[in-house]
Amino acid sequence: MFVLHEHHRPRHHFDLRLEQDGVLRSWAVPRGLPTESARDRLAVPVADHDLEHATYTDPDKAIADTGWWELLDRNAKRFVFRLHGATGSRRYALIDTGRDWLLHLTKEQP
Asked: Where are the domains of the chain?
């Protein structure tokens, strides 16, 4: 599963959470998922969350999208995956820069 949480406090941002090995691996994405391949987005890794957190909402946090994801390719510095959510299917890459990550919308889309 995956979930995209939209936070309104303390500052508007999104959290991308991908289920892996029984936890939700998470990245804070301040500007949301990229909408074009020429504009990567910063993705800051944050602490893993329990699976129960996937459905959690409160007055300052909503679920922007949810569904399932599939790993398409992986190496030591990046992994390519497809999100299958309520808003459709999109292919992304998370690229480890050594400090943070970049979230990239790939040119090849389903």
From this structure: 2-105
